[in-house]
Design brief:
The chain is an alpha+beta fold. It contains ten helices and 18 strands. It has a seven-stranded antiparallel β-sheet. Strands 6, 7, 8, 9, 10 and 11 form a six-stranded antiparallel β-sheet that branches. It has a three-stranded parallel β-sheet with strand order 3-5-4, with no helix packed on it.
């Protein structure tokens, strides 16, 4: 009988242990408001939802090359005659409001996304309004992949070049290193070709120039083979991160993609890290599949907002899944084709803000020690810290990686006040 009771008690404990995280995730879903406030007419905002700005006109460009050139020239002439400023928008994930000009004209570039692949020289010519996911789906048909891109595929090509974003490709510079050339429409409507050999100054200024030097139209990008990659995972102390990175990533020629993560729960705050990397294997890369459901993963992430339990649960589930997923094989395109919806905030009383700090290797451990008390005592809610290695940028005039650095990507959740616009 005693043995029977032990079994019953054991089953009840398992049920309770399973029900608590389930309840937490369901509660997260219940508290969300999936109806996004629509923007007032004549206003535009960026992904931060903190820069609502009244503008003169919002114009969506056409997809056709000749049409867009004609249209943009007339818009530039109109803006000059009426003393209006022009800002350029893609997926609008550049936070801070610096890509929106009050009472100006906003060009929405997303429709301009035609693509053509040179399979001999491995060069993709692509419209600046295309999203990276468009490029990945197109290239997948040819067994090719994007050389360098950001962590999410839901950003625009032109936007990524304008901020000169970096990715999680092993020991790579920012996106600028993969740009062969682009066409740029200047303020007087002239179309110029920019590369390291032709109009080099404009090439260096426009990459990472946030649209200040003209409108990027067509971009020629290096592409690489879409290879099969096997997942590897190491759990370690942050103090050992740099030495482990050198040994398991930099010195391993088979590693292709890599990122790190720091634990952010109050328990063991910044005292644990994971090093996650993907090694090339000899098997053929599987084809890019249709979009998979990410709702459970998103809710686990959103459940960490203002919740110590949620932060611990996410860390435990992710590190647990890392053990389960270890040695699984993916295509490079599949790994790169993650959508920002994976972390989407559907509680519209708050917003998520991204900040990034680029730290030289020699300052890595000191930086973590320095930010630890600051973050602990901050009232803002820290959701995530990802670490990515970024090599020196030799292209952009406004380079943030002037030497090899580690990018610490910090994501915060911030409550916001509702503003009434009439």
């Amino acid at each position: 009988m005693k043995k029977k009771y032990f079994w019953i008690i054991g089953i009840l404990i398992v049920i309770i242990l399973l029900s608590v995280p389930t309840f937490h995730i369901l509660k997260t879903k219940w508290n969300e408001d999936s109806i996004l406030d629509s923007l007032p007419k004549g206003y535009i905002d960026d992904a931060s939802q903190l820069n609502l700005t009244k503008v003169d006109t919002i114009i969506q460009v056409p997809n056709d090359k000749k049409e867009i050139e004609t249209q943009l020239k007339s818009i530039l002439q109109y803006a000059k005659e009426n003393d209006l400023k022009i800002s350029i928008a893609g997926a609008r994930h550049s936070m801070g409001g610096h890509t929106i000009y009050p009472d100006g004209i906003v060009l929405t570039m997303l429709p301009y996304k035609q693509m053509e692949l040179d399979t001999i020289n491995n060069i993709l010519t692509i419209g600046s309004g295309a999203l990276w996911e468009d490029a990945l789906k197109y290239l997948d048909q040819y067994g090719r992949s994007v050389a360098i891109m950001q962590a999410f595929s839901s950003f625009s090509v032109g936007g990524s070049i304008s901020v000169n974003g970096h990715g999680w490709q092993k020991d790579s510079p920012p996106i600028s290193a993969s740009v062969i050339s682009f066409t740029l429409m200047t303020e007087n409507g002239e179309i110029v070709h920019c590369s390291r050999e032709e109009n080099q100054e404009l090439f260096n200024l426009a990459i990472g120039g946030y649209g200040l030097f003209g409108i990027i139209l067509n971009v020629r990008l290096k592409v690489v083979e879409n290879i099969a990659l096997q997942f590897k995972h190491i759990r370690l102390s942050p103090k050992k991160y740099v030495s482990y990175y050198k040994k398991h990533v930099s010195d391993n020629p088979n590693v292709n993609l890599v990122f790190g993560r720091l634990r952010i729960s109050d328990k063991h705050f910044l005292e644990e890290a994971t090093l996650n990397f993907f090694e090339k294997v000899g098997t053929p890369a599987p084809n890019l599949q249709n979009e998979k459901s990410t709702e459970a993963q998103r809710l686990v992430f959103r459940g960490s907002v203002n919740s110590e339990y949620g932060k611990r649960l996410r860390w435990d589930l992710e590190t647990g899944m890392n053990k389960v997923s270890k040695n699984e094989i993916y295509s490079r395109n599949e790994l790169l084709n993650d959508h920002v919806s994976l972390i989407e905030n559907k509680d519209h009383s708050s917003t998520d803000l991204l900040q990034e700090y680029f730290i030289p290797e020699r300052r890595f451990n000191q930086y973590i020690d320095d930010i630890k008390p600051i973050l602990r005592h901050s009232k803002i809610d820290l959701l995530n810290i990802t670490i990515r290695g970024v090599h020196q940028d030799n292209d952009s005039y406004l380079a943030y990686a002037r030497e090899n650095v580690f990018g610490f990507v910090l994501l915060f959740n911030q409550k916001k006040k509702r503003m009434n616009k009439s």
